[in-house]
Amino acid sequence: MNTAFDMLGVVSPGRESWRFKVRVLRLWTTSSFLQPEVVNTLEMVLIDEKGVKIHASVRRQLLYLFQSKISEGNVYKMSYFTVSPASGFYRTTPHPYKLVFQLKTKVQVSESNKIDLYGLSLTKISDIHSEVAAPEFLVDVIGVITGMSADREYIRDGKVVKMIVFELTDQSGKCECALFGDYVHSLQSMLGKAHNGLPVVVVQFAKIKTFRGSISIQNIINATRLFVNPAIEEADALKNGIAANGIETPSTIPLLGARAKPSYEEDFLLNYPKITIAELVEKAEDGVYVVCAVVDGLVEGEDWWYPACNCHRSVVADSGAYYCKVCVKHVYQMFPRYKVKFRVADSTGNAVFVVFDSDMRLLIHKDCSDVVAAFKPESSIEYPTDFKLLKGMRLLFKVEKVTNAFEQFDVSYKVKRVCNELSTIEAFVVPEVTNSPTRVLSSGFSESEDESDMEHEFVEDSLNRDIVVQGDGGAGCAGSLEAVHFKDSVVDSAGEVISLDDDSDAGITEFVSAASKLAKDAKLFAVKRNLSSAFAECNDVGESSNPSKCLKTKED
C-alpha cells in the first residue's frame, strides 16, 4: 500500500493538506433553486482502496476549474481540501464529514486496480422494512425484479415526467421501488438486453420513502445508479440463495397493475349496509354505511379547504414554515385540499356529511388549488359558486360513523366515497324504505323536477397544483393566499404511484337525478354541529371512483 496517501476513514476537520488516491464512484450536478437551468454545484462520492466512501462538493465559483477534469469511474490523485461536517437528509455515505474543493485543490488522473468499481454497501430489504436502515442515508439494494408496472406520466413544473414502479425481492423480503424521469428509459433499455430469467437489479444511492406506514425506495434525480445483472458475486449469491430457499420466481416479469378499487356496484350496493339518515344517526355501532341523500346546502361559517402536507394530512404554520404532525417535521410547501361540510337530507332526516378532496374534484371538476386561487370572498359570499351548484344533487355516500368525545356537539360523518352513477343510484334500495328523495329545499321539503331534459357529460382529469410558501409561511387558513404562489404539480391520479399509497381519484363525473316527492309530514332529524374542534386536525379519507359517463339535469 502506498503510504503517501491518506485513507478516507481518518478524515477530520482542522487540516487541509490531505492527499488521496480515490475513484469517483458517482458524479452529478445540482441546479440553482431559482434558476433550474443553471448548474449550482458538482457533487461526487469518492471511494478509496479500503472501501471507505466520502461525499465531496465543488461550489459554483470553482466549476470552471474542476468540472471538465473529473469523470465518473476514473481514479485520481487529489489533494488539499476543506473538511466540513456532513449533515441533512439523504446523505450518500455514513461518513461524518465531507470534502469541499478549494481553489488550490489539485486533481491528477491515476490508476488503481485495488479500488472497487461498484463500491456497494448492500442493505437487506428486511432492514428497510424494520427501519434498521436509517432513512437519512441513501441505501444500496440488490434484488430480483418480481413485478413491474406499466410506465406512467405526470406533469411537473410544466414538463411531462415518466414514472415506473417495480418490485424487488431478496432472500429477506420484498420492496417496491419507484423510478422517475430518465431512469425509466434507462431501466427499460437495460432490461431489453437482459436474458435468462428474471433480472437482478442493483439500485445504488436510493432514498427510503415512508408514506402512510408503507415503506419503499425511490431514486434521487442524478444521484441514483442502476445496474442490471451486474457481474458481481452478490448477484450470483442472490440468485442461488433465492433458489435454495424455495422462493418461486416466474420466467418473465409479472405486470403490477394499479390497486383495483371496488366498482360502484360492489362499494355501494354489496359491500356495506344500506341505511337511511335516521338510522345512521341512531346507530350505536361504529362502522361504514351507505346512504342515499340529496345535497341540501352548505354548512355556513365553516372553512372549505385546509393546508396539507405532501402526505395529505393537515399542517399548521410554525416558525416561517409548516409543521406536519404525521411526518413529524417542518415542510416548506403546502397543498390546499378540499374539506367541505354539506347538509344532506333524505325522507327520514338530515345530517352533515364532510366531503374531501378527491370526491369534491369528482363533483365540481376543479382542483382545490385552482378554486382557492380564483376565489375572492365578499361579505355576501362564503363559498365558491361551484359548490352552490351542487345543491339538489342526489348521490350515494359511503360514510363512516365513529363515536367520539365531540359527538354531542358535532354529529357529522366523514365521507369515504361518493357515487354519482345513475344506474347504481337507481338500483339502491334501503330495506323497508320505499321513499327516495328528490331535490330538497332548505326547509326539508321536496320539489318536483322534470327528468326529460338530460344530457350526457364526461369530464377528464385536471391537473393539481402545489402552493409553495414564500416569506414567513403565514398563509395557512382558508380564504387567504397571501405569501403563496402556485406551480404545476403531479396530478392526484399519478400521485397514487408516486407516493405508492395514495388513494386519490383518477376520474371525474357529475350527475343529477330526481324521483318521487318527499312527504311533507316526514319526520326530520336535524343535526346541528360545529366542526371547528372535531376537525381541527382534519385528514382526507375520501376515496375515489373511475371515470364514467353520467347524466346531469338542467335546471330551468
Per DSSP, the total helix count is 12
Classify the helix fraction into a percent range.
10-25%
Mean pLDDT: 77
In order across it, which strands form the biggest sheet? 1-2-3-5-4
Q: How much strand?
A: 35-45%
Largest sheet: 5 strands, mixed, barrel
Gap between N and C termini = 90 Å
Organism: Trifolium pratense
Keywords: DNA-binding, Metal-binding, Zinc, Zinc-finger
Domain Replication factor A C-terminal: 298-407
Family: Belongs to the replication factor A protein 1 family.
Write the layout of secondary structure elements.
Blueprint: E1 19-31, E2 39-47, E3 53-59, H1 63-66, E4 75-85, E5 97-110, H2 125-129, E6 139-148, E7 152-156, E8 159-170, E9 173-180, H3 182-192, E10 200-211, E11 214-219, E12 225-228, H4 233-244, H5 264-270, H6 277-282, E13 287-298, E14 305-308, E15 315-318, E16 321-324, E17 329-331, E18 333-346, E19 349-356, H7 357-364, H8 368-374, H9 385-388, E20 394-401, E21 413-419, H10 422-427, E22 439-440, E23 446-447, E24 454-457, E25 465-469, E26 484-488, H11 492-499, H12 531-534, E27 550-553
Parallel strand pairs: 3-5, 9-11, 19-21
Antiparallel strand pairs: 1-2, 1-4, 2-3, 4-5, 6-8, 6-10, 7-8, 8-9, 10-11, 10-12, 13-18, 13-20, 14-18, 15-16, 16-17, 18-19, 18-25, 20-21, 22-23, 24-27, 25-26
